[in-house]
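We both want to read discrete structure tokens more fluently, so let's practise on a single case. Would you write everything just below, so we can both look at the same thing?
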Amino acid sequence: MKSKLNLEELIAPKYRAILGKYELYVATPSWNFKNVPDEVYNIKINKVAVNEQKNFDFLELLNRLDGMAYGTEGIPMDKWVAYDMAMLPSMIIGFGVRPENVSDSTVKAFEAYQDFKKARKIDIKKLDNLIPVSEYCAIPSADSETWVSHTLGVWSGPDGKEDQGLGTLTKAIAMAIIQPKYLIGVAQYNNFSTRIHSKFDDMELLSALTPAHSLPEITFTYRTKIPDAEKLVELLNESSPTYKEPSFNLDPEDIKKKEEMQRNIAAGTHGYWILRPALVAKDGKLSVPIREVQYS
């Protein structure tokens, strides 16, 4: 999508700072390049051909970024999953930094993960490619208007406080590139990344529990309607968002309540939406604001 909007002139300072530090990339096989625009919001897209040997180190670092974002065990993607189920049918979209501009903390993080996994050593400072610091992927579904959110990963420094807003900006730009009408995704009630997903729309629960998932009791499936390119910019510019009053606040560990919600969803008697900000931390406890609608 070639937009007349110039993002650097329109969005909040924290997002402009990110655009000043990093470059946008799309990783997909070269035969998919015809479906990837050259720019979005007047930001140049670096197209990374995942089928070319010259990008081997980039792809290795992208895999390590996923591990750094999700932890060393469990959810991080195997390389074949990233290729077969993300890059091949779709694309991975994110931000990267040139080796001459990469921070010492980022280099140390990649090196620590490399040592932990006993992986092949990569001299990051000597690479001739981008070093990925964020990634997002959505995959087309059988419904032409609906895409399935596959992964969102961000490296925000050792304390998680660097480049605040990088995940939100990455997903917003990805939505502007692929332009889905609806997005279906999978997330965990106790994961603060849900705040990013809820920024674009209230999250309609399609499942309150997810038995097919590796983490069935804490995982839900959701659907959101994705705004157009102009509205995405408006959402990025929000300074004081308005939060709706929930019907109740869900304890992420309350399995009985989630089982009740799941029965109601399956029976078609009730609908549930996770409202912004999606996850609230107060007095050492987490809660999820839920809107409940009983159908007549």
About this structure: The mean pLDDT is 90. The chain is about 30% helix and 25% strand. The longest strand covers residues 285-294. The chain has two domains: 1-180, 181-296.
